[in-house]
Write a structure and sequence with these properties.
Helices cover 78% and strands 0% of the residues. It has 210 residues and is mainly α.
Length: 210
């Protein structure tokens, strides 16, 4: 078992890492704006499942193979970058298509569904090999020298819980402020900004090395 103090420290580090602005943050924020609190929470759970999958992959040695192979890393990185650009372009198209009438309850703008938001969160995280690199560097700091696979899975559960905690909080806060963003001009501006950030992050990911 992981000692309580070590588990608490790891949880804090994971939450602080999740709070850093990046693709996950933007996806949850936009999901909350376009689909409400439920969609934002679903995106957060998708991201958390991605984190769990990466840590399990580390426990099984899969992530180490990925990061050791320049070709595999590059392929996953470019696919992930392309997905971020795709999401950003979707936001731009929403700006182009919509007149953004005030988004009241009777608006004919179809909200983002929770299932779609979950998939966006999951794919955004799974297609980012930097997450594997991050946890490959982080986990040894919290595992004993003779750490077992079970202890790594314990940390995976803690990482998942910390990720859920932060992104659910973010989704609830942004969802609660959704009324502020019902104004068409505000939503148009937010979609333009968030879309640009996603495209920019995609291009940055594509240009960076391991």
């Amino acid at each position: 078992m992981i000692p309580g103090a070590t588990a608490a420290s790891f949880l804090l580090v994971v939450i602080l890492g999740a709070m850093s602005p990046g693709p996950d943050f933007i996806v949850v924020t936009r999901s909350s704006l376009t689909g409400g609190r439920r969609a934002g929470i679903a995106a957060g759970f998708g991201i958390a499942l991605g984190v769990f999958a990466w840590v399990v992959a580390i426990a099984l040695g899969v992530a180490a193979v990925l990061t050791a192979s320049a070709v595999a890393f590059t392929v996953v990185k470019l696919v992930g970058a392309g997905y971020l650009v795709f999401l950003g372009v979707k936001a731009w198209l929403a700006v182009r298509r919509g007149e953004y009438r005030d988004l009241g309850a009777d608006a004919d703008v179809e909200p983002l569904k929770a299932a779609a938001a979950f998939r966006q969160g999951l794919f955004t995280n799974l297609l980012n090999p930097k997450v594997a690199v991050y946890f490959l560097a982080l986990l040894p700091q919290f595992l004993p020298a003779d750490g077992s696979t079970l202890q790594t899975l314990e940390l995976a559960a803690i990482a998942t819980a910390g990720t859920v905690l932060w992104f659910v909080t973010l989704a609830v806060v942004v969802g609660a402020l959704k009324k502020v963003f019902r104004n068409g001009r505000v939503r148009r501006g937010l979609d333009a900004v968030l879309g640009s950030l996603l495209v920019g992050l995609g291009l940055k990911v594509a240009a960076t090395t391991a």
